[in-house]
Amino acid sequence: MTTRLGKALLGLGLVGGMLMAGGATASADTTLSEKPAGTMGSSYPVQQYNAFAKSRVSISRSNSVPDLSEWQGSFTDAQVKKLKDQVPFVILRVQYGSDYKDKTFNHNVALMQKYGVPYGVYSFSQYSSASDAKTEARDLYNRAPDAEFYVNDYEDQTSSGNTNTAATNWYNTIKPLAGSRKVLLYSYASFMQSYASKAVKDYDGFWLAAYQTSEPTTASHVLWQYTDSYYMSSLGQSVDASVSTSKDSSWFLSGASTGSDSNTGSDNSGDTDNTGSTDPDDSTGSNNSNSTTKPSSNFNYVNIDSQFTVKNNPGHNFFNHIPNEGRYSYKKLHNGSAYAGKNITVDSQGTIKSGSSHSYYRAYYKGKKIGWIYDKALAAKITYTSPSLKVKVKANPTSNFYNHITNSKYTVKKTHNGSAYAGKTLTVNAAGVKYGWKTPYYRAYYNGKLVGWIYGASVDVK
C-alpha cells in the first residue's frame, strides 16, 4: 500500500512561515479555527499554527491528554520529566498508513518508557481496502507492542469497498494481539456516521474529535478531543488535547474495563485472583504502581502441565509477564517467530477475569523458560506415525477433510466435505494424535488421490 502523505504535502504551500492548504497565503489575521477539526497526525502541522495561537481562545481542562506526533518534534529528557507530572497519559502517533513511520516515535517513546509516562498509540489510517486494513493494524502493533492501548485514527476516506468492513477488519486484526488492552476508533462524528457507524460498535470505545467549548452529546464516546490549542508548559507549545468525563485513566491503562457500560469488568478487590493464586512470576517483576497499595491482577492463574507447538506464523511474542496483567511492568523476551514450529511445555495458564475465553501460557523450550505467550500463537502438539491401513467413512461423518490436522501449526483449509465420501473405503499412510487426545487423525487417499486429513471418529478402521 502507498500512503497519501506525499500527495498531501504537494498540495501545501509554505508562505510566510506557515503551511496552508492549497498554497493559500497566511496573514497575522489567520486564526486556528481554519485548521480542519480532527486532523490529528495528518499533513497539517500543528506546530505551524502555534504562531497564531493568540488569535484563538485556548481552552484548558484538568487531566487533559495530549496526542503527539512528529509535528511536535523530538522531546528532551527534561521535557518528558515535566510532562509526567502534567498528564495521566499521552497518545503517540506511530505511522501514517503502513509505509510512513513517524520520524520521532522511536525517540519519544523511549523517553516515555524511561520516565514512566503511560502511552497509547495511534495509526493515521490510509488503508485502501478491507484487506489492507489488516496490514495497517498489524504494522501498528508490531511497531508498538508495548503500548497501553491502540487507536484507529480513521478520518481520511481512502478505502474502496465496504468501509465498515475495513474498519472492523482493523479492529479484529489488532484486538487478539492487544489482548485485554483497549482498541479505540478516532474520528469526528459526521465522518464516523458516514463510513464507520456499524464498525464503531465493535471497538472498545469511540474517541470523538469536536473542537468546541461544550462536550457533544450526539455521539457516545469515551474520550473527547476538544481542542488543538492546549498549551503544555512542559513541551513549550500548544497541542491537541482530549478529556474523558465517563472513564478515569485506569480504564484506558489497566487492560480491563472498570466502566459500568462495558461488557467486561475488573475485580480489584485484592492482590490474588479468584483461585487464590498469584502470578507465578511475582518475584521477578516490578510493580506498575507508584502508590503503596499494590494493584490487583486482572487475570486468574492455574497450574497446568501441558505441551503445545508454536504456530509457523505465531503473530505474538514471549513476555516476562502477561502484558497489562495489572500489577507488573512487562517486556518482550523473545520474538514468537524465533520459536515457530517448535514444541514447548507450559506450566501455568493466565485467563483474564472479564470472561474472555483466551489465555496466556508460561512456556519452556528444552527446559528453559522463554516467557508468557498468547494462546492464539500456539497449536496442538501432534505426534505422527506412518501406518498402512484402510478406513471406511461412516454414513454420517461428523468431520470433514483438511489439508492438515485441525489446530496444527500449519495453515488449515478444508479440502472436501466428509459426507462426499460417506461409505467409501480409503487408504491411509499417516496418522497424527494431538497431545492429550486418544483418537487419531488419518491422512486418507481415494483411488490413489489425496483427499485429506479426517478425524478418526468419522471413520471405521477395516
Describe the structure.
The protein has three domains: 249 residues, Glycosidases (TIM Barrel, Alpha-Beta Barrel), CATH 3.20.20.80; 99 residues, Roll (SH3 type barrels); 80 residues, SH3 type barrels (Roll), CATH 2.30.30. It has eight helices and 26 strands. An eight-stranded mixed beta barrel has the order 3-4-6-7-8-9-10-11, surrounded by four helices. Helix 5 packs parallel to helix 6. The protein is elongated, with a radius of gyration of 26 Å. 43% of the residues are buried. The N terminus is likely disordered.
Features:
single chain; 462 residues; alpha+beta; TIM Barrel; SH3 type barrels; 8 helices; disordered N terminus; Lysozyme domain-containing protein; Glyco_hydro_25; GW_dom_sf
Question: Concise description?
Answer:
By secondary structure, the chain is of the alpha+beta class. The protein contains 8 helices and 26 strands. The longest helix is centred in the middle third of the chain and has 16 residues, at 163-178.
